[in-house]
Amino acid sequence: VLEQREDGKIVSKEDVMKYTLWEEQNHICLYTGNTISLSSFLGANPTYDIEHTLPRSRSWDNSQMNKTLCENRFNRDTKRDNTPFELQMADEILPRIQHWNKKYEELNNEIEKLKRQSRSATEKEQKDRLIQRRHYLKMEHDYWKGKYSRFIMEEIKEGFKNSQAIDIGIISKYARAYLKSVFDKVYSVKGEMVAEYRKAWGL
C-alpha cells in the first residue's frame, strides 16, 4: 500500500508506520537505548524494523499499540518470542517509556477536568463540545496507556487474548465469505495452527 507525499514522491504505508513509531519512541530503541537514525529504518536494507511488543503468536495482537521499532538483530537473537517483562534488561526499558506513562496520566487529568466542566455547563452546545473533546482525549489516553501496559505486562492473560480472538473471528468470517465467491473450497483454521506451520516451514 502506497501513499503520495506533498512533493510527489511515493512512500509505503509501512514506512509511514515506522516513522510514526520512531517519533513515539523519541528516536531511540526501547530495548537497547541506541539512537535510531532515519537511514537505519528507511531504504532498501534497514537495520531496524517493526516488531510486536507482545509476540503476535502469543497475544494475537497486531494493533499499533503493540508495535515498536526495533533493531533486526536484537529482535531475531534476543527478543524472539519473549515479552519485554521476560527480558533480562526489563528494568532498563522502563525509563525509556516513562514519557508514555506521563502522557496518559496528563490526559487522564484533562479528561477529569472536562467531566467537571461538562457537568456545570449551562448551554447544550458548550456541553456537547466538552463531551466530544473528552471522548477524543479518552481515545488518545487509551492508546498511550495500552502501549505502556504492554511493556510492563507480566503475563498475557486469557482475557486479553480473547479480546483479540473476537476481532480475528469477525475478520475471518467476512474474509471467508468473500473468498468463497471466488474459490470453491475455502477453510479457516485457528491462529495456533498457523503459528505451528510457520515455525515448521521456517517463515
Model description:
With 203 residues, this protein is mainly alpha-helical. The chain is built from 8 helices and 4 strands. It has a two-stranded antiparallel ribbon. Strands 3-4 form a two-stranded antiparallel ribbon. A hairpin with a 5-residue loop joins strand 1 and strand 2 (10-12). The two termini are 22 Å apart. The mean pLDDT is 87.
Q: Key terms for this structure?
A:
single chain, 203 residues, mainly alpha, two-stranded antiparallel sheet, two-stranded antiparallel ribbon, 4 strands, 8% strand
Quick structural summary:
With 203 residues, this protein is mainly alpha-helical. The protein has helices spanning 13-24, 56-59, 72-79, 90-93, 98-120, 124-152, 158-180, 191-201; strands spanning 2-4, 10-12, 48-52, 67-71.
Number of helices: 8
**Average of the residue pLDDT scores:** 87
Strand order of the largest sheet: 1-2
Uncertain parts: none
Report the span from N to C terminus. Answer: 22 Å
> Which oligomeric form is depicted?
single chain
Rough outline: globular
Give the strand content: 5-15%
Largest sheet: 2 strands, antiparallel
Structural class category? mainly alpha
> Number of DSSP strands?
4
* Helix content, binned percent: 55-70%
What series of H and E elements makes up the topology? EEHEHEHHHHHH
Taking all Cα atoms into account, the compactness measure Rg is: 20 Å
